[in-house]
Amino acid sequence: MNNHNLLLHTGLKQKAVPTRETSALDTIHWGAEVYNLNKSSLYNSLSVDRQNQILKSLNQNTLVELLRIERIGTDLSRCMSENATDDNEHLIYAMISGEEVNHYMSLASFANPEAIKSDANRLVDLIGQIMYSKNRTAITFTLQVVLEGFSLNHLRRLKQFCRSEDLQAALNMIIQDEARHHGTGLITFKDQQDSHTPWDLTDVKTITPLKGFLNMFQVGPVRIVKTVEKYSEGLTDAQRIQLFQELDSEIMVQDYLDDFKKIMISAKASSLVDRLETDGYFKTYSFQNMHHISKELQA
Ligand SMILES: [Fe+2]
Ligand SMILES: [Fe+2]
User: CA-CA-CA-CA torsion for 210, 179, 111, 78, nearest 10 degrees?
Assistant: First the structure.
């Protein structure tokens, strides 16, 4: 049995999709520790009601981000299935596409339907750029190796801290599938790079959207600070900087960027890693720079 057959066989052991039993918007699925807010004296000084509003809003953001990644997974697998090089690959990606739909449906039941509708987003734009390139290696590497590899680690952390049993069960099901999707991506990418025409990952079609991804994480804590600002009575410049410091923003971001780097290194994309390193995409911003960005961006 070759690698593709083995992946197909494993994936056909389909699991039931867990769904929620409680009201999506009234439940706090992840507490302050997931956003490092438990470390903030500013957050801890707010009333319990305000803290809960902040957590509910951040939880919804987290869910909408997960849903966007699932939508991307559906588009990616459909595109790969349509452009498959053989029957097995066509079937594998058609199966993955079905699983991504399952993931989307099971997470959607926990999210605010209005938030799902407003889909204009930088991540979606970046994915559009990659899909438009129609380059199979760029698509496989960027989305299946890097983005799915990263989201696998992210999902494991979210599952670990999840307070809702039904959502935890959904995350568990998704993690098992995503581990296989990422594994499929690594195999497909390796086959592509071992072929007569390996793809230069530092080509603008691949590196530009990847820089966009990394930059989204470089400014990630801004979303948390803007949410606290929205549900408290505003923040002064000094309080905003204090909050970035209390959240350990630099460490939080550096952990994410290191994670991306590790995934790229494990896929043997060293020339790409060198370029991104040289251009500053694996480096976190200072508190002052994050503060500056937070003043420019809307929550
Ligand atoms: Fe998925
Ligand atoms: Fe996936």
Answer: 70
